[in-house]
Amino acid sequence: MNLSLLHTPDGVRDFYGDELDLKNHIMDCIEKNIKCYGFDEIQTPTLEFLNVFLEDNDFAYESKTFRFIDRDGETLVLRPDYTPSVARCAAKYFSDEDYPIRFFYKGNSFANKGLYEGKSIEVTQMGVELLKDDTYLADAEVLLLAIKNLLEIGLKDFKVCVYTREADTKRLDKILNIIEKEGYSRFISVDKDLDSNFKYYTGMIFKVYTYGVGESICKGGRYNSLLGKYGEEAPAVGCVFMIDNILQSIKRQKIATDFKKNKKTYIVYSDSKEEEAIEKANELREKGEICVIVKDNLFTSNLSELCKNNDYEVVKL
């Protein structure tokens, strides 16, 4: 065994087994709730031109991108942030639309952080972007979506730190009034020192924190000037769920979720029973059940113990 080939680079990791099942469960719950708000999925490329993410030489990831030079000499980067990608895509394909547009996304982003920062350089994100709607109700809706999603997946003890970059705070007062009327003001904390690395935010900004993880588990805000960089200016507001941080907080807080592992049936067949095993497996799979066929000599004691511990059914032929 070549041990040098078994390691991953600093800042990235493998997900598998129960942990991956729980991570996928979290994402499924968030996606289901996001769709209830009328957001449609959008996919942007993992590779983008560097200029998509530069903002007057003051973009937070300018010095922390993974960069590549393509065969034409253009500088490409691994996507460090979803919002500029979505804004670029919207400017390209939806500039003629005169009504609010709702997108949601899911995938990984990449930040070339220092070796000793101790942070992940590849993270899984899910988020929403509500474009061409400049109302304070849109801001409040994004905040409510964030709070309700976190509650839905089992988190109860978290704080939404919120403030505004606008000089006039009356708009923020209206937003918070809606949150209060909806019964979620206990999660809100107005933080005048709140800031974001991203300079494109123009109004309300927020970050959500909980114990068990040192970084925010959700963040977002209003960015009314970003779309103008790629085309016609338009207002926008959005938020992103940091899936890996949410997963970590749920595990460290030992939160019991309604997540249940899929049941499996193992069909263990002996010589001359191959066709019978296939027939039985097909019967179960047509019912939507998960079924695994395995030869009896491969059904080891370890596999038998795995089935027992997970309450998997075993059918021997």
Structural class: alpha/beta
DSSP summary: helix tally: 8
The CATH superfamily of the largest domain is Bira Bifunctional Protein, Domain 2
Radius of gyration: 24 Å
Write down the CATH class of the largest domain. Alpha Beta
Q: What characterizes the major β-sheet?
A: 8 strands, mixed
Estimate the helix proportion, in percent: 25-40%
- Judging by the overall fold, what is the CATH architecture of the largest domain? 2-Layer Sandwich
Assembly state here?
single chain
Q: What's the number of extended β-strand segments? A: 14
Kindly identify the CATH topology of the largest domain: BirA Bifunctional Protein, domain 2
Characterise the protein shown here.
The protein is an alpha/beta fold and 317 residues long. The protein has two domains: 9-252, Bira Bifunctional Protein, Domain 2 (BirA Bifunctional Protein, domain 2); 264-316, Rossmann fold (3-Layer(aba) Sandwich). Helices cover 31% and strands 24% of the residues. The chain is built from eight helices and 14 strands. The longest helix has 20 residues, at 17-36. The mean pLDDT is 88.
